[in-house]
Amino acid sequence: MSSTDHLDKLENQSIFILREAYKKFKKLAMLWSIGKDSNVLLWLARKAFYGHCPIPLVHIDTSYKMPEMIQFRDHYAKEWGLNLIVGQNKQALAEGMNHTKGRIVCCTALKTNGLQQIMEQYDYKGLILGIRRDEESTRAKERYFSPRDKNFEWDFKDQPPELWDQFKTNFDENTHIRIHPLLHWTEVNIWEYIQRENIPVVPLYFSRNGKRYRSLGCAPCTNPVESEAKDVAGIIAELKATRTSERAGRAQDQEDTYAMQRLRAKGYM
Amino acid sequence: MSTQRTAGVPSETLKFVMVGHVDHGKSTLVGRLLHETGFIPDTKVEHVKKVCEDQGKGFEFAFLLDGLEEERDQGITIDVAQMFFKTDKRHYVVIDAPGHKEFLKNMISGASNADVAFLMIDAEEGIQEQTQRHAYLLSLLGIKQIAVVVNKMDLVGYSQQVFERTRDTYLQYLATIGVRPHSFIPISAYHGDNVVRKTDKMPWYTGRSILETLDHFESHDDRTKLPLRLPVQDVYKFDKRRIIAGRIEAGSVAVGDTLTFYPSGKSTRVKTIEKWNAETPARVYAGESTGLQMEEQIFVERGEIAALPSAPPQTGESFHANVFWMGSKHLQKGGKYLIKLATQEVEGTIEAIVKVINSSTLEEISSDAAEVAKNEVAEIIVSTRRPIAFDTFDAVPETGRFVIVHDHDVRGGGIILKKAEYLGANL
Question: Looking at the complex, does the CB of residue A150 fall below 8 Å from at least one CB of chain B?
């Protein structure tokens, strides 16, 4: 009898996807946001490739990220011997871009366009991201291998079929494919896996003075939530009882009803 | 395996898909189910309430899933949403598929990932085009456990007669495609009757609610009992080790087993099973993404299927298959397409289109045809440019199915019926 449990099944599927991506895309990168999900993704890559991460990691630095995130990034990039590429939309920052110009404007300039610049510079054809279906409703409709056109746009009304784990690995010159190995995980699964595997995370996730960050982003647009969860076990217990959404503390999602749909159609993560 | 089981936490997962004709209430049922089981965050419910008020509507459970602006404006599901919840018995992934004919490829994408299905019929409208087509496609996809849901019972006065008439008519259709449904369930998704629990509206119904039915379905993951099939995904040499990587699609493999790789026919023994940050196991099973070091350094490549020589797959250059076609351009007799079967990729030629049928009415449209149009199903004969390893779908589903790629996208899916006779060198 097989003894695979729920987390093993999630892990096996993600490893299969990572290996498909690595085999089929010569110009491949993985987005590392330094958040819990992309740390799990990185861990899964080291599982898939037996302790190695043969895929370069791209971090889009908006310059507004919390300092603890940058410290964490630099520490583990060195410790794990990662090939780290940091991207930044310097022109937009020089012209004074910040969230007061409008949150969607700012996210598009510093994140989407910052990413676009790196993708062009390195000519990446495949980009691995740690998004999950349970995060919000447009992500619930994503494919594992999801094409973006030359303008970076996602045609969510006409997605290619994806069946029997036969993924979209053939594509036009001008397009790139977003690869989503964590699509089938939930927020609780992520923390259960972090606990089981003992994966390091940025300490901002843990409660200090009655508050913690449930989701990490740029300092001006990310708010902590009320919480007493001081460790991973505390977070898991809290999430099992909660009735609020994970991204409730992320201001750009609340900008208007379909903010996330508009951001993602234009190439946001 | 290095698993830490926690008492009382279900370890089993069942994926179910909700299919049926457009507007028969699939998304409403899924929204209701998730809401009543407490798996929709309050903030999301508040958000949907506000959207409905802005549109001047009552609360729409479907909006909990149909998150795209176009979907809410038109009250229609465009693409598959996958959501999560659990009962005391197990975890569930719910796949809400679109019912509109235009989005059939999305329905198939969703259903191809499911273990079991609910097929929904509107009690007032009765059986429609997609009610039939979806049932047939489920049977082609190999989904055996199907429960039929008769929804909107509130609109027909919760009438037992209407329910039984719908059931009897539909049973006749299902019999013609060899589907024996698990059960028929009368519900009102809008009012929540017989969704999570039974209400007093239909005292004549003695069966299970939707949620009870879910827990009653059998978890079918018995792939470990099938013969070993390990398609090679890649070969790694990151350090001293040379590791053959792949996911076990059927059966299991242990250290010391002699494996043969098909179609090349090379053999060697398993030296170690590799794992990172966990104990190395002595045996690995279907569903596991694994890596093997072999005793001899034989040359194998992505695409070959490792099996025990006592239970090999078939090898050949031609097979009969049932295919469903999703491309806007017709599938052409004599046409060349990329065939992807497990990790094999090979150019295939459509040698013959034996017959084409309407996937809803099951009428035979033509025999010995020249092409297959979008949303039609056909029996075809495919020949491949070089020999491949495969099984019939009945024997080992995971290596008995394939997709057809054209112009960069998957345009069709197929299941292998049997190996074809030698077709002649001039084909």
Answer: no
Q: Would you state the structure tokens that stand for residue B248, as one six-digit string? A: 């076990």
Residue predicted with more confidence, A205 or B47? A205
**Facing A196 at nearest CB: one of B4, B275, B291:** B4
Residue given tokens 């949303």 in the structure block: B375
CATH code, residues B314-419: 2.40.30.10
Instruction: State the CATH class of domain B13-216.
Output: alpha beta
Say if residue A21's pLDDT is above 60. yes
Which parts of chain A fold into alpha helices (H)?
6-24, 36-48, 67-79, 90-94, 103-107, 113-122, 187-197, 232-241, 259-265
The CATH architecture that domain B223-307 belongs to is Beta Barrel (2.40)
Return the SS3 of B417.
strand
Whether A202 has a pLDDT exceeding 80, the answer reads yes
Checking if the pLDDT of B383 tops 60, the result is yes
| pLDDT single digits (tens) A23-41 | 999 999 999 999 999 999 9
Contact list in B for residue A50 (CB cut-off 8 A) is 236, 238-239, 241, 243, 274, 276, 291
Q: Which sign does the torsion angle of CA A70, A73, A79, A83 carry?
A: negative
**ipTM for the whole complex:** 0.89
Share of chain A residues as helix, strand and coil, in percent rounded to the nearest 5 = 45, 15, 45
Q: Give the per-residue pLDDT at B387.
A: 96
What is the spatial distance between Cα A109 and Cα A122, in angstroms, rounded to a whole number? 19
Domain B223-307 matches domain B314-419 at the CATH topology level: yes
| B58 vs B49: CA distance, rounded Å | 8
Q: Would the CB atoms of B41 and A242 count as touching at under 8 Å? A: yes
Sorted by where each begins, the domain ranges of chain B are 13-216, 223-307, 314-419
| Structural domains in chain A plus CATH codes | 6-186 (3.40.50.620)
Query: What is the 3 state secondary structure string of B311-378?
Result: CCCEEEEEEEEEEEECCCCCEECCCEEEEEECCEEEEEEEEEEEEEEECCCCCEEEEEECEECCCEEE
* Chain A residue numbers touching B286 (CB-CB < 8 A): 2
pLDDT in the model for residue A251 = 64
User: Within the 129-188 window of chain B, which residues sit less than 8 Å (CB to CB) from chain A?
Assistant: none
Q: Does the beta carbon of B326 lie under 8 angstroms from any beta carbon of chain A?
A: yes
